[in-house]
Design a protein that fits this description.
Chain A is an alpha+beta fold. Chain A has 4 domains: 105 residues, Alpha-Beta Complex (Sulfite Reductase Hemoprotein, domain 2); 151 residues, Sulfite Reductase Hemoprotein, domain 1, CATH 3.30.413; 95 residues, Sulfite Reductase Hemoprotein, domain 2 (Alpha-Beta Complex); 137 residues, Sulfite Reductase Hemoprotein, domain 1 (2-Layer Sandwich). In chain A, 36% of the residues lie in helices and 17% in strands. Chain A contains 18 helices and 21 strands. In chain A, strands 16, 17, 18, 19, 20 and 21 form a 6-stranded mixed beta sheet that branches. Chain A has a 5-stranded antiparallel beta sheet with strand order 1-2-5-4-13. In chain B, helix 3 links the parallel strand 5 and strand 6. Chain B is of the alpha/beta class. Chain B contains 6 helices and 8 strands; from the N terminus they run ββββααβαβαβαβα. The longest helix of chain B is centred in the middle third of the chain and has 11 residues. Chain B has a single domain, classed as Alpha-Beta Barrel (TIM Barrel), CATH 3.20.20. Classes of the chains: A alpha+beta, B alpha/beta. Chains A and B meet through helix 1, helix 2, helix 5, helix 6 and helix 9 of A and helix 4 and helix 5 of B. The complex binds iron/sulfur cluster. The site of iron/sulfur cluster has 13 residues of chain A, from loops.
Chain lengths: 562, 164
């Protein structure tokens, strides 16, 4: 992974120092809360219902065992003994004290971490495929490009005060997308031209929130040396033309959809033609230097076929076999596997991890790999380089940590925003609902029968739980002071991205889980084969059978939907 | 009025003249864009004193681009501290239009955006009234490492230029 040089180290130290000064000036009253707010936001510090929440960047989801131990130390020392992994491959601490945040930043700087630009109207943490560098189906490792983009976007002076937040994601797998690039302000896919030259396909104007939009392709092929000048051209057109009069109309997706992609493309290409400077182009040796940080580790030989993993998947120990099927991914390197640690156990809120779990996982990352850990969009973790023959032993360790639930990619691997328990924008609680769903559908055989299925829950229309792109999405709303839940179906964040649709009136808290069950039953009843996934079946039959099942007279005779 | 120019606190000799104010017969004046556009000939006919234009940040630079050789100063308005349009405008003024005169930030200008502003091409700052200029001067050097060129483009990998 990328290692900081002296400049990088100096930057994060100076940043911590700068923020210490800003906090002191705030406490001394030299700056108003209104003036302080953008400063703390650019440093990931939100004021929530009960306390400050500090969001720490895990660039493109990649971090080390040493960094994990420091996060555990922070959880213990300055928080309540746990941290929360987010859908943007970051980690949040929910109970920060303002005057202690500079100390936390110092502790982060010690391990080459920071909270820079994890919120505010600026370029946020760069995200990518959590299997980058080990995925068998990728064209090339996307992470060197993520790191180059991270550095370029860090304290970019021109784009520090954009109309609204700005998210960039990378993917490198043809025909598949584990990074949801079409739902980002800019999505970048590593591709090859017809002549085999490496470059990028650029998407723009996607996003969730109140107005979910699937992005549009602005450029089918950009030679790779031009990446940053092209990103600058897009950002400049947005910075100058994006709306600033209405926070809900300020994202680039609104600009792109109001101008139309053709007009927006013209503006960007015009700007790019005028501003592109040779000095900003990457030379091949610079690209190679960055790639060298991400070179594969020296894997000790570990057998050369997938047979062992395939046999584990049929093992007599049914629980282990299920884990090997659902949570273990084939690796680029023969004899190795990538392992998903589920942060969706039955007890803790999705994405939460205690300090002791963090320490233990750090130790496992050293013992069963090269000290690397990945955070996923799905709020899980990945140990990327496990010798396949070590899987039984690792699995036993993971079980004792309660992170071995074999539900990766299954219904209960759901994502869920903090909702009314923490967030001051929420309309409804989301965590207890997620909990109830995980408990209600705790039969792993049933989950396997349902197959790949995404469930996403948001506590309000800001959509932090990405409900629009869940195969099943749930949105908390407020009806005359009571919590209700809208159910939507048919969303997908994959390469064939689609937005879910609401089929009818919202459900009250006591019937929403039953409604989800009804959807699942309907799917099982109409699928053509066991292999037809929920989303495939839904796309084939359309919404009618589901609407009938949900809103037919009989089901809700006693609990009419609101 | 005291301002910061080229990282120093100085007494500023420029005078802002609003649209409805009488134009002083001599001295350096900054006029709003609208006045510049409606009284261009009279303004150019002045024999003493330099000219500056105050540009709202939602107007395209094309409106003054042809006149830049006659202007010694462009003031860019920050209606709100968080409104970053002026940053792109300054960068375009320097890079695309080669403007060498003073680019001054006016309006809601605060210490904590000045290091960014400087890198975008600003060299003078009228701080929001009541804010300490002495304190603001310290902001320029808080973070010495820059990852990207701004008015001097460079690729990320060749960056590390300004540290130390
Ligand atoms: S979706 Fe709404 S309730 Fe949930 S975290 Fe986001 S803003 Fe808060």
């Amino acid at each position: 992974m990328y290692r900081y040089d002296d400049d990088d180290k100096r930057l994060v130290r100076e940043r911590a120092e700068q923020f210490r000064g800003q906090v002191e000036r705030r406490i001394a009253g030299e700056i108003t809360e209104e003036e302080f707010k953008p400063l703390r936001l650019q440093n990931g510090l939100y004021l929530q219902l009960h306390a400050y929440m500090l969001r720490i960047a895990i660039p493109y989801g990649l971090f080390s065992s040493g960094q994990m131990r420091q996060l555990a130390h922070i959880a213990r020392t300055w928080d309540r003994g746990y941290g929360h992994f987010t859908t943007r491959q970051n980690i949040q601490f929910n109970w920060s004290k303002l005057d202690e945040v500079p100390d936390i930043l110092d502790a982060l700087a010690e391990v080459e971490m920071h909270a820079i630009q994890t919120s505010g109207n600026c370029i946020r943490n760069i995200t990518t495929d959590h299997l980058g560098g080990v995925a068998r189906d990728e064209l090339e490792d996307p992470r060197p490009w993520c790191e180059l983009t991270r550095q370029w976007s860090t304290f970019h002076p021109e784009f520090a005060h954009l109309p609204r937040k700005f998210k960039i994601a990378f993917t490198a797998t043809p025909g598949l997308d584990r990074a949801a690039i079409k739902l980002h302000d800019i999505g970048v896919r590593l591709v090859q031209s017809a002549d085999g030259d490496p470059g990028f396909e650029i998407w723009v104007g996607g996003g969730m929130g109140r107005t979910p939009i699937i992005g549009a392709c602005i450029r089918e092929f950009l030679p790779r040396r031009h990446l940053l000048s092209y990103l600058e051209a897009i950002l400049r057109v947005y910075n100058l033309n994006g709306r600033r009069d209405n926070i809900f109309r300020a994202r680039i997706k609104i600009l792109v959809s109001s101008l139309g992609i053709e007009r927006f493309r013209e503006l960007v290409e015009e700007e790019w033609a005028a501003s592109r400077e040779d000095a900003m182009e990457f030379r091949d040796d610079e690209i190679a230097r960055m790639q060298s940080f991400f070179a594969p580790p020296a894997y000790p030989a570990a057998g050369s076929s997938d047979e062992l993993l395939l046999s584990y998947r049929q093992a007599e120990d049914l629980e282990f076999a299920r884990f090997a099927r659902n949570n273990v991914v084939l690796h680029k390197q023969p004899g190795y596997s990538a392992v998903v640690l589920s942060l969706k156990s039955f007890d803790a809120p999705a994405g939460d991890l205690s300090d002791t779990q963090m320490d233990s996982i750090a130790n496992l990352a050293d013992r069963f790999g090269f000290g690397e850990i990945r955070a996923t969009h799905n709020q899980d973790l990945v140990l990327p380089d496990v010798r396949t023959s070590d899987l039984p032993e690792l699995w036993r360790e993971l079980q004792t940590l309660d992170v071995a639930t074999a539900n990766a990619g299954r219904l209960t691997d759901l994502i869920c925003c903090p909702g009314l328990d923490f967030c001051n924008l929420a309309n409804a609680r989301s965590l207890p609902l997620a909990q109830e769903i995980r408990q209600r559908f705790d039969d792993l055989d049933y989950l396997d029968d349902l197959g790949p299925l995404s469930l996403k829950i948001s506590g309000c229309i800001n959509a932090c739980g990405h409900h629009h792109v869940g195969n099943i999405g749930i949105l908390g709303i407020d009806k005359k002071g009571e919590e209700f839940y809208q159910l939507m179906l048919g969303g997908s964040a994959d390469d064939d991205a689609s937005l879910g649709r609401v089929l009818g009136p919202a459900f009250s808290r006591d019937v929403i889980v039953g409604a989800v069950d009804r959807v699942l039953q309907t799917y099982l009843g109409l699928r053509e084969s066991d292999d037809e996934t929920f989303i495939e079946a839904y796309r084939r039959v359309g919404e009618a059978p589901f609407r009938d099942a949900l809103y037919g007279q009989v089901l809700y005779a006693n609990h009419p939907p609101a | 009025m005291r301002i910061i120019r080229q990282r120093e606190i100085v007494d500023d000799g420029w005078v802002h003249v609003a649209t409805d104010e009488a134009l002083p017969s001599s001295g350096d004046v900054i006029v709003p864009l609208a006045r510049w556009q409606s009284e261009r000939e009279e303004l150019l006919a002045r024999t003493t004193g330099r000219l500056g234009v105050r540009l709202p940040n939602d107007r395209p630079l094309a409106e003054i681009a042809a006149d830049l050789p006659r202007l010694a100063l462009v003031a860019i308005e920050f209606p709100k501290y968080r409104d970053g349009r002026g940053m792109s405008l300054a960068r375009l003024l320097r890079q695309r239009h080669g403007f060498r005169g003073e680019i001054r930030a006016v309006g809601n200008v605060l210490r904590d955006q000045m290091a960014y502003l400087e890198r975008c091409g600003f060299d003078a700052y009228e701080l929001t009234p009541g804010k300490s200029l002495e304190s603001a001067l310290l902001a320029f050097d808080e973070i010495a490492v820059t990852y990207q060129g701004a008015i001097e483009p460079r690729s990320v990998s060749r960056l590390r230029g300004s540290a130390g």
